[in-house]
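Issue: ligand-bound run for zinc ion - logging full I/O for the record.

Environment: standard queue, default settings, no custom constraints.

Inputs:
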Amino acid sequence: MVRRRIRVPETQGSSPCTQTKKLERPDEPKATSGRSSRLSRDQPDYWGFRQRRIPTANVGTSPCTQTKKLDLPPTESGEGRRSTKLDTKKYNMKFKFKKDKRNPYWKKLELRIQKNAAKKDKKFILTGPWKKFLEKRDGIKIYLVDGNWIRNNLYGGFNHGGHGYVCEYIPLDEIWVLTTHPVDCKCKHVKPNRMMSKNFRKSLILHEFTERNLMAKGMIYWKAHQLAEEVEKKAGYIRDPYSDI
Ligand SMILES: [Zn+2]
Ligand SMILES: [Zn+2]
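Outputs:
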């Protein structure tokens, strides 16, 4: 979830659904956002996909050095973990993933949710006036949701958007995006009424969609989120995805 997230003090990092704090981007000159982290592109060869290997999920291992496969069962739609040639071509990216310096709690939690995603109760589908269907993309239903309702009733740290591989309460075939910027998000240039621009929403959906699909194939959240930001940047819906305009 781009924009994505917070269950702990900012100093401890961010959870997938709630990140609001800027992530460090030591190597790149361009700027940044509440939901994204800057990526360095000078390292030619990491990501697992290029090596036909799914990045590992070992907690405590540096994201940049993981080599073990994440043990994820295939999802309903047949998304398993392999994949990868296609993804490499599609995104055609090479870069060095930022090191995960968050409190290890977040990584453990993310992995647990991701690993157990296929075990969710498929009948647990939240609906209500707070949730409006927007579109279906490659079998994934995208909903506009009321952030205030979610924060008051589901998760107080929900931020911008989310999907079923990072949010326990979102079905795997759904992506949720807020209609407005959260009141405490770090985005720049937000209008007084906090409504999201169409382009921001497009970029957000692209991020969530990309991140979700990468995680469905076994990539851990920490990496999938960064790649999703890169895809946003390439798409160019907003001037600078790293500043969340
Ligand atoms: Zn994300
Ligand atoms: Zn925002």
